[in-house]
Amino acid sequence: MKHGFNSLAVKGILKAGDVIIPGDTTMPRFSQTTFIREFDRISEFMDPADRSGFKLLMTLMAFMPSVVILFILKVASHHQKFPDFIGAILRQINLGMKGVILTMYYSGIGEQGDAILQKLNYSTAINTPVDQDIELENLMKQNHPLENYAPLNPKEMMLKSRQAHLDISALSLKERVAFITRLRLVLLERQEEITDIIQKETNKARTDIMTSEFFPIFEHLEFLEHKTLEALKEEKVATPIAMMGKASKIWYESMGTVLVISPWNYPFYQAIAPITCSFVTGNATIYKPSEITPLKGLVESVLFAAGFKPEWVQIAYGDGKTAADLISERPQKIFFTGSVGTGKKIMSQASQFLIPVELELGGKDPMIVFEDANLARAVKGAVWGAMTNTGQSCTSVERLYVQEKIYNQFRDAVVGEASRIKVAVDRDGDGDMGHMISPKQVQIVADLVKDAVSQGAKMLTGSSWDFKSSQIPPIVLEGTTHSMRINKEEIFGPVLPIMKFRDEEEAINLANDSDFGLSASIWSKDKARAERVARQIVTGNISINNVMVSEGNHHLPFGGVKDSGIGRYKGVMGLRNFCNVKSVMVDADSKKIEANWYPYSPKKYELFKGLTTSLFTGGLKKWTGLVRFGLPLEGHSQKAKRE
Ligand code: NAD
Question: Where are the beta strands (DSSP E) in 442-545?
Answer without folding.
Answer: 458-459, 475-478, 495-501, 516-517, 519-523, 541-544
